[in-house]
Design brief:
The chain is mainly alpha-helical and about 240 residues long. It has a single domain, classed as Cytochrome Bc1 Complex, Chain D, domain 2 (Orthogonal Bundle). Helix 3 crosses helix 5 and helix 6 packs across helix 11. It binds heme C (2 copies). One heme C binds next to helix 1, helix 7, helix 8 and helix 10.
Length: about 240
Amino acid sequence: MAALRPRPNRNACSLRLRCERRRATAKVASSAPGWQMAVLALGLATIGPAGATGAATFSDQELQAKIQYCTYCHQPSGQGYVGSTPIPRLAGQQTDYFKNQLQAFIDRRRVNFFMFGVAHSLSPEMLAALADHFNTLNPPSLGGAPTELVEAGKKIFTEGVPDAKIPPCATCHGPEAKGNGQFPRLAGQLYPYIVKTLTNWDQERGQGGAEKPDTSAIMRPIAHSLTESQVKEVAAYLSTLE
Ligand code: HEC
Ligand code: HEC
């Protein structure tokens, strides 16, 4: 994988951007529940310290500086960036999902070289404030996916793939793919990021082992069951949504 190249006109990604070394981590215990069970469980799940609310322990200036730092890679309106490593759209993302993912990077339940370095210094209060900020943004989608795949992708999103026992994505991600709580928004997400994420699910998500099971287990069987061409189709569709 080539090095990450964020916007050239800023010096921010001064983290030394090297390739992420994938850990051949043990797979999550095979006790992952079926998705129906998992959906029920999700309603009861707590999000831990990231969900805590309380008096801000930082100034507005500190928050603005942190936001600016995030946007060096995720771009000023959180619209994402298509480079050699795709940097996902954060704009309009569900706050519960957002906080849980940052916590997952900190806990190493989700593995990513760049985001571990970013997330591990964030306090629960800062993390919540950042989630609120990016949730309010609504830039247009970047687009750029192969348009001939969009129609087939829409069918997968709304109807699932019954032969492969894949439920409609819309049942969890919402009819407009805007997400809800721990179900992420997918509308306008970058095509290459969705393709990469669904393809590499087992190497990146749910890496906490049996002691730290998480919401990634719900998507796991779905990511597995999608074929390579179905992944591209549904990613193309989602990336066009506003
Ligand atoms: C050095 C570049 C860089 C910086 C700076 C950065 N990010 Fe990221 N971020 C990434 C990359 C790359 C990913 C995709 C990780 C992956 O592929 O799993 C990501 C993923 C994320 C995700 C998960 C998105 C999803 O849809 O699951 C969140 C949330 C996030 N970043 C928030 C932040 C916040 C908040 C900041 C600022 C405090 C920040 N990022 C700063 C590069 C960066
Ligand atoms: C049973 C509920 C459910 C269904 C059905 C479902 N998802 Fe998900 N999906 C989730 C959950 C929960 C997450 C968050 C996983 C985590 O916390 O790591 C997720 C995460 C994702 C992500 C990662 C988003 C990001 O920003 O990194 C993608 C992409 C995705 N789903 C695509 C799909 C597609 C495509 C379908 C249909 C083929 C689908 N999902 C069907 C529950 C579902």
